[in-house]
C-alpha cells in the first residue's frame, strides 16, 4: 500500500521502492564504455513487458525521470566494483533500480510476480538468481536527520552537474553585462563537486518526488551564501569520459572519488544542517546530478561530525 499526501494539488507518495537484482553472468559482455546505459535499457524493457504505453510515455518525457539506476556491479577479488567496459566471466553481478512512482513500482512488482528468470543485458540473456525488494519512508529520512557539521561523499560512479542559463547569469554577471549572450536552451556541463550545484540537485529531486517536510529555499540560500564548502579531496578525484553509442560521438564526462565537505561555523544553521543530512541520505537512493537513470551520480554519504 502507498500512503500519499498532497503538495499544491499534486499527489505525492510517502515511500519509494528499491528493486535489487542478483545476476549470474556466465557469458562475457563487452559494453561501449559504461554499463549504466545498458542497465537503463533493462529497466525500460521490464516496464515495457508490463505496460508498453507506460514505458513509451516515460521514455518520451522531458522532465525528471522518477527512477535511478545503478551501473552493473560485479564481485571480483574480494570486492564489488563498477563495470565500465568488461568483466571476467563467470561472475555474480548486481543491479538496483530505485523507483519514486507508484505506477512504475506496480509494473515491476507485476513482472516479478509473473516470474522473472532472465533479463536481456546488452543483447545477452542473463539469469536472474535473486530479487530483493525494499521500501523507504520519506518521513523517516526527515525524522532521523541530525545536524551534520562535516561529512564525506564518495562519488562512486561518474557525476556531473549542469549549469542552467539562470545560474550562469547569477554566477558570472560581469561576463554578460559586457555583451555576452546566452540562449535559453544552453547549459554547461560542470564535472566538479560544486556545493551549490550538489545542493540544488538534491533539492530539485526532493521537490519532484516528495516535496514536503523541508524548508528548501532557506537551505539553498544558506548554501549559496557559503554555508557549505569543500574541505578536501582525500585520495583525489579524477574525471572519466564515457561514450553512449559505438558509432556516434555522444559522450559524457564526470568525476569520481571521495570529497570532504564541512559547514563553516560562522554561517552554521542547525535547521539547514538537518535538511542537508536528510537530502544526502536521500541522495544515496536518488543519485545526484545528471544521467541518474543511466547509473551516473551514485554516491555514498558518511557523516564525520554532528553537532553535540
Task: Give a short synopsis of this structure.
The protein is an alpha+beta fold.
Describe this structure in words.
The protein has helices at 36-50, 52-60, 102-114, 138-143, 165-171, 173-177, 195-209, 216-227, 270-286; strands at residues 4-7, 10-13, 15-25, 67-69, 73-76, 79-82, 91-99, 118-121, 124-137, 148-159, 161-163, 188-190, 229-232, 237-243, 251-262, 299-306. With 308 residues, the protein is of the alpha+beta class. It folds into 2 domains: 4-137, Alpha-Beta Plaits; 145-306, 2-Layer Sandwich (Alpha-Beta Plaits). The strands form 4 sheets. Strands 3, 4, 5, 6, 7, 8 and 9 form a 7-stranded antiparallel β-sheet that branches. A hairpin with a 2-residue loop joins β1 and β2. The chain is globular, with a radius of gyration of 20 Å. It starts with a strand and ends with a strand. The model is unreliable at 1-11 (pLDDT under 50).
Oligomer state equals single chain
Mean pLDDT: 90
From the alpha carbons, calculate the radius of gyration and give it in angstroms. Answer: 20 Å
pLDDT below 50 for ≥5 consecutive residues: which ranges? 1-11
Instruction: Please tell me the CATH architecture of the largest domain by its name.
Output: 2-Layer Sandwich
CATH class of the largest domain: Alpha Beta
CATH fold-type name of the largest domain: Alpha-Beta Plaits
User: Structural class given helices, strands, pairing?
Assistant: alpha+beta
Provide the domain count.
2
How many DSSP H or I helices? 9
